[in-house]
Amino acid sequence: MCGIAGYIGYREAYPIVIKGLQRLEYRGYDSAGIMLYDNKIIISKTKGKVSDLEKLMNSENTKEGTIGFGHTRWATHGIPNDINSHPHVSNSGNLVIIHNGIIENYDSIKQELTKRGYTFQSDTDTEVLVNLIEEIKKTNKCKLGKAVQIALNEVIGAYAIAVFDKEKPDELIVARLGSPIAIGIGEDNKEFFVASDASPFIEYTKNAIYLEDEEMAIIRKDRGIKIRKIKDDTLITHEVQQLKMNLEQIEKGGYDHFMLKEIHEQPHAITDTYRGRLIANKGIIRMAGVDDNIEKFLNANRIIVVACGTSWHAGLVAEYLFEDLARIPVEVEYASEFRYRNPIITDKDIVIAISQSGETADTLAAIKLAKEKGAFVFGVCNVVGSSIARETHAGAYTHAGPEIGVASTKAFTTQITLLSLIALKLGKAKGNLSTVDYQNYLQEMELIPKKVAELLTIDDKVKYIASIYKDVPNCLYLGRGYNFPVALEGALKLKEISYIHAEGYPAAEMKHGPIALIDENMPIVVIATSKGHYEKVVSNIQEIKSRKGKIIAVVTEGDTQVKAIADHVIEIPETNEAFTPLLTTIPLQLLSYHIAVMLNKNVDQPRNLAKSVTVE
Ligand code: M6R
Asked: Which of 58, 204, 226, 337 has the most beta carbons within 10 angstroms of its beta carbon?
């Protein structure tokens, strides 16, 4: 997965493209490159970040031109180096391409093109694609748009591409299959922006079109856009969408890192998730996607959750919520495994796909499979208009706002908030929750943002704990029940941004193996809140203590028992058991954040990762 940003119009393209790439850097940051056209093609590209590209441009190149595009790369084919960086140029030097995705059959196409005399500088699939387009344009004597269309019908894989032809310098061609493309429409249809999401052009226009899979757009300066189906050339009309995102939402707002900003945004984000849906004083939970399909939910034999990474952890919390509150059996599947099994699914199953980005390739493929097998698929996404939001039969947005830090934080807590609302709604409708219990849950949900805000004030304490353990090579996270997924999530956060090896376990599983790791050098983060197997977790803590492990315990305020044994305790406000993950997660996010900062790691853009994984 990579980020692409481009401009065609009357303004200088360089500042728009470079700023756009900075905003898309969360999608990949192995290398960056740019193409500008000002009577000649100017290309600059380099291994490293967009800031390295800027330095290169400052030292080497003119930045003129009112048409241009850029790319920030997460390497798939070919190591991250200057040559493999995008843009890639065809053998004639006329065509330039940027590409987000993977061309799976590139090797056979490359062999064929090599036989016809083409040579290749890079190891990428993208350079093969641009030369395929060139070859088709030459042999068919057709225009660029037609050549792109024919080429895309020959390739297998996923792509969001932008292509430029020196012979048609007032035109950009973009196309998508499996990777997103947003087109911003500027004033009077005189300028256009293209990007992997709308963030690069938010200050220029609020009007956008999102290409669907297997669509391409021919964008001409002053002359507008034509969208066609890649397969059969049908002309398509898209409704122009009004973007709600604003500039402040995608900037750091005074925080050192997006991750810290996003951790601190959680009280607001959770409120935004339930705003308009939860009317506690009237005992109402309103959610169009569920209301419109209520019979399907109430009659479902089971719910299958498909997701990846942090979203999968939210799915595990949902398993407890749905089974506990709504008494519906739940299975939680890694989308990447589910899609390649031959799962038994019927039209009595509901598949819930959870994804912050709404673009995760494995989750998308799992959805398609579930649909083929007749299941009703419900999406829980953050990014409005994303592929998963469009591919599912119905769904609900978390409304967490843009999450830029690669490590997911507010996405997790807002997903849990949304899933809690659904479970409560179904629990009530199925008669599994008494009116009093239901009402208590609703009122408690309204208090969660305030409790999260309160928790965030313990930052200094967590920072102190981070300073003690920042140099450890390993760390264990333990939790039970609703907080077992939180242990997994805490461990994932630590490993992905600090590169410390961390494992999450159900606390009781410790004695079946991980206990062998415990000695005086091993920190163990234990979630031991007052409700839900408290006494049993206390026993686990005793077992750790007697093996000299260092205990960092997350407890409910007022706890005395764990306080007496643990090396450090972090208190969370009292809440019901089902909502504890919304609170226990917060100190674990802060702990990994501070450790990573102290270790001087790139918190927002950890190595080898990217925000949305749009490839397999
Ligand atoms: O956008 P999605 O929620 O589908 O992304 C799924 C995972 O790639 C994502 O949660 C990943 O694990 C994060 N880096 C975790 O912090």
From this structure: 204
Contact 194, 182 (CB under 8 A): yes
Given the residues 47, 451, 493, 611, the one annotated as active site: 611
DSSP secondary structure string for all residues of 10-29: SS-HHHHHHHHHHHHGGG--
pLDDT digits (tens, 9 = 90+) for 120-147: 999 999 999 999 999 999 999 999 999 9
For residue 355, the CA-to-ligand 1 centroid distance in Å is 7
Query: Is 408 within the bounds of a domain?
Result: yes
Whether 611 sits among the annotated catalytic residues: the reply is yes
> For residue 527, which phi and psi values (nearest 5 degrees)?
-95, 115
User: How far is the C-alpha of 581 from the C-alpha of 611, rounded, in Å?
Assistant: 23
Of 305, 357, 367, 488, best ligand 1 pocket probe by most atoms within 8 Å of the beta carbon:
357
Which residue's alpha carbon is at the smallest distance from atom 9 of ligand 1?
Answer: 309
In tens, the pLDDT along 228-246 reads 999 999 999 999 999 887 7
Question: Considering only CA atoms, which of 75, 60, 62, 210 is closest in space to residue 609?
Answer: 75
Nearest to 41 by CA among 27, 61, 58: 61
- The residue with greater pLDDT, 250 or 539, is 539
Identify whether residues 29 and 67 lie together within a single domain.
yes
Distance CA 192, CA 438 (A): 50
Distance 305 CA to ligand 1 centre (A): 15
Clarify whether 531 is annotated catalytic. Answer: no
Kindly state the tokens that stand for 547. 């093996």
Tell me: do 190 and 266 sit in the same domain: no
Which phi and psi angles does 66 have, rounded to 5°? -105, 15
Q: 130 and 116, same structural domain?
A: yes
Per-residue pLDDT tens over the stretch 99-108: 998 898 999 9
- Among 573, 15, 559, 547, which residue's Cα sits nearest to residue 267? 573
Residue 384 half-sphere exposure toward CB, CA atoms < 13 A: 13
Q: Ligand 1 test: best mutation among 316, 332, 360, most atoms within 8 Å of CB?
A: 360
Burial class (CB in 10 A: 0-12, 13-18, 19+), 407: buried
- One domain for residues 483 and 358: no
Tokens 């492990």 appear where? 549
Task: List strand residue ranges (DSSP E) for 321-363, in order.
Answer: 330-334, 349-355
Q: Specify whether the CB–CB gap between 150 and 136 falls below 8 A.
A: yes
Q: Are residues 495 and 393 in the same domain?
A: no
Q: Is the peptide bond before 581 cis (omega within 30 degrees of 0)?
A: no
User: Choosing from 2, 308, 381, 475, which is the catalytic residue?
Assistant: 2
- Cβ-contact 27, 610 below 8 angstroms: yes
Give the domain range for residue 83: 3-249
Q: Please give the tally of structural domains in the chain.
A: 3
215-220 sheet: strands from edge to edge:
88-89, 95-103, 157-165, 171-177, 215-220, 224-229, 235-236
